[in-house]
Design a protein that fits this description.
The chain has a single domain, classed as Jelly Rolls. 27% of the residues lie in helices and 23% in strands. It has seven helices and 16 strands. The strands form three sheets. The chain has a ten-stranded antiparallel sheet with strand order 4-1-5-14-11-16-9-8-7-6. It is globular.
Length: 316
């Protein structure tokens, strides 16, 4: 059964003039929909519309899913508190399963690595268990796999709503199978020990969507005007962020959501949980929208205040 949820709509305020500044955000304005409405119904369609309009949405999750997130955060705290040698033992390099040390990933340049450790579990490897002797790693893996059940349901159903939006008249929607290459990841930062303004530089995740959960500030989302808003955070909500693959699926109708993680020096530890949703790599996945590259080329000058190419090049 899919988890019930409510959707909130961020309202932005305050004039911002310079790209890169952070704009204030009001507290989320929650819908009046009841918690017993299912994701497959109106609220799911509303979430899909928010992603369609702006690339991201805030979803309020039920208490049971919030509890599963809390279990992951507790297990992650215990795992990352171990000595480095113990964490390094919980790693499977061929599949990038388990632990990744600080410096293994970067957003812009290898010389400026992301300032976080991580632990990941891939859906295609759900039957691959860490040995019981792995202790904290096995506990974290188990907690992540429990959380994967409701989050995968949210992801699959949200993508089904989007597929329906882009289906041609008279044609059935073409859903996306996300059971293979999707993975859950926990990031652990130590902001108080960092010496950079941003723990992660500006980037987009490169997936279909990311379902993100954090209970501490730091994440900032870039808006279409280049300004940033602090992402809402709390125990009872997740963010859905569009990635480059969804942009490709929708013929660039939905842009990828760029974001960054700002350092808050008063945080000794910052933990975040992400479901990175990817299509199955078995078989060829066709986009929902056939992209007319000529039309894109013709319209691109309008992004810079110029007439479109078809006007510039028309015969006199």
């Amino acid at each position: 059964m899919l988890a019930a949820f409510t959707i909130s709509y961020p309202r932005l305020r305050g004039p911002v003039h310079d790209s890169g500044q952070v704009r204030e955000m009001h507290d989320p304005c929650l819908s009046n929909a009841s918690q017993d409405e299912r994701y497959a119904g109106p609220l799911g369609r509303a979430a899909a519309q928010r992603v369609l309009n702006g690339g991201w949405a805030i979803l309020r999750i039920p208490a049971a899913v919030a509890g599963q997130h809390a279990a992951v955060l507790a297990a992650a705290h215990d795992f990352f508190a171990q000595p480095d040698v113990a964490k390094a033992a919980a790693c499977d390099p061929p599949t990038a399963e388990g632990y990744r040390p600080l410096g293994a990933e970067y957003s812009i340049a290898v010389e400026r690595p992301d300032l976080n450790e991580s632990f990941s579990v891939w859906m295609q490897n759900v039957d691959r268990a860490f040995p019981e002797t792995a202790g904290a790693a096995a506990d974290l893996q188990a907690a992540l796999l429990d959380l994967a059940v409701p989050l995968m349901g949210i992801a699959q159903t949200l993508l089904s709503h989007l597929a329906a939006r882009f289906a041609k008249p008279g044609e059935a929607p073409r859903p996306v199978d996300v059971t293979g290459a999707t993975y859950l990841q926990v990031n652990r930062y130590r902001p108080a020990e960092a010496d950079r303004e941003f723990l992660q530089e500006r980037h987009e995740d490169g997936h279909l969507i990311t379902i993100h959960h954090c209970r501490q500030p730091g994440l900032e989302i870039e808006q279409s005007d280049g300004c940033y808003v602090p992402a809402p955070h709390g125990p009872d909500q997740v963010l859905v962020l569009a990635g480059e693959l969804l942009t490709m699926m929708t013929g660039h109708r939905i842009p990828p959501v760029h974001h960054r993680v700002r350092r808050h020096a008063d945080q000794g530890e910052r933990l975040s949980v992400m479901l990175f949703v990817n299509p199955s790599l078995k078989g060829r996945l066709a986009p929902w929208v056939d992209l007319d590259v000529n039309a894109v080329a013709a319209g691109n000058p309008r992004r810079f205040g110029l007439p479109s190419l078809d006007l510039l090049l028309r015969d006199e």
